[in-house]
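2024-03-11 09:14:02 DEBUG pipeline.ingest accepted 1 chain
2024-03-11 09:14:02 DEBUG pipeline.ingest length=391
2024-03-11 09:14:03 DEBUG pipeline.predict start
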Amino acid sequence: MRDRPPVLYIVAGEASGDALGARLIRALKDATDGTIRVEGIGGPLMIAEGLESQFPMAELSVMGLLEVLPHARRIMGRMREAAAAVDELQPDAVVTIDSPGFAHGFVTRIRSPGIKKIHYVAPTVWAWRANRVHKFKRHFDHLLCLLPFEPEYFDAVGLPATFVGHSVIESGIAEADTNAFRQRWQIPAEGPLLAVLPGSRRGEVTRHVAPFREAVERLLPSHPGLTCVMPAVPHLKELLDGLAQNWPTRLVIVTEKEDRYAAMRTADAALAASGTVSLELALAETPMVIAYKLNPITHWIVRRMVSVDYASLLNIIAIRHGAAPIIPERLQSDCRPEALAADLDNLLSGQGRAQVEALKPWMEALKPASGLQPSAEAARIVLSEIGVPPR
C-alpha cells in the first residue's frame, strides 16, 4: 500500500515538449483524482497546469551542435540544479520530455537510487545514430513513443517501449473556430490567407524570416489581397515583432493558443519550418510547404549522420509504407524564396486540397490502438511504472 500520493518530477526543454508535458500533467491528474504532485521544469502550458518551474524553460531551448556551445556551461549548471532538486524531492519517477541532450545529462547526475526514469518522445534512431538505443537503455526504465514503428527498435535491446500515440491528435486544432478568428482579426473572407511559421526557437526564427518574407513578396503579384498570419510561441513575440518589420503585406502575429490553432485552421496554405507544426497543419487540413535551414557547419555534420532524405514526419511515414512523399520540402540551400513562392503558388492555385486528402491516412496511423487519447495512454504507462493502479 502507498503511504503518500504519487510524486513526479517532469522536465520539458522546448515549446513542443511543454505542450506534451501540459497534456500529460492534466491526464495524470484525471487518472489520480487530482492527488498526484508534480514538480519540475516547463514552459507556460505546464505552468498553466499548476507546475512551478524550477527555472525558465527558455534557457534550455537551444538547437544545433554549434549553437549549443556558447550556452554549454549554463546548461550543465542547470542539469546539476535539476538533479539536486530530484535528490531532495525523492519523487516516484522522473519524466523527461524530448530534449535528449539535456535529459541524459540531467538523469545521469541524479544520485538517489530507486527513482524510475521515463523518457517521453523516442529518439529518431530510425533516422540517425541508431546506436543511441543503447544509451537510452542505460539511462531509462521506459520509453514512451509517438510513432507506431518505434518500439521495436528499443524492445530489441531490452528497453521497454510503448507506442502511446502522437499528442497532436488531441490538440483541438480540428475544432478551431475559423469564422471567429477572421472576425477577431478583421481578416476578409475573400482574400487568401497564408500562415507563416518560421519556428519555435530563436535560431530557427532568425534563419527563416528573411527567405519567408521574400517568398511572400514574390507571391503578391499573382495573389493580390494576400494576408499573412504568424502563429508564434509567446516568448518569441518581441523577436518576431522586430524581425517582421517592413513585411510586404498585412501580417498578424498571434500568440494565444486558441488563436494559433485557429490561424492554422483558417489559412489557405502554410509556409512552415520543419517540426511538429507539420502534423498540426495536417490535422488542421491546411496544405503546406516545409522549409528548414541549419547553421552550415551543423548541417554538414548532421547530413553525414542522417539516413533519411526527408524532414517532414508525414513524408517519412508515407515513404516507409511505399508511398511517394506528399509535402514539398525546401531544405538548406533549397530554402530559397523563389522555390518557396513557386510551391506556395501551386497550393494556393488549386493543388492544396489533393495534399490534404493524401495526408489523412498517415494521420490516422498516429492514434493509439487503445482508443485512449495519447496523453491518457502516456499517463497510464507512467502510473503503471510506479505501481499506481488505474481508477
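2024-03-11 09:14:41 DEBUG pipeline.report Residues 62-67 have pLDDT under 50 and may be disordered.
2024-03-11 09:14:41 DEBUG pipeline.predict end
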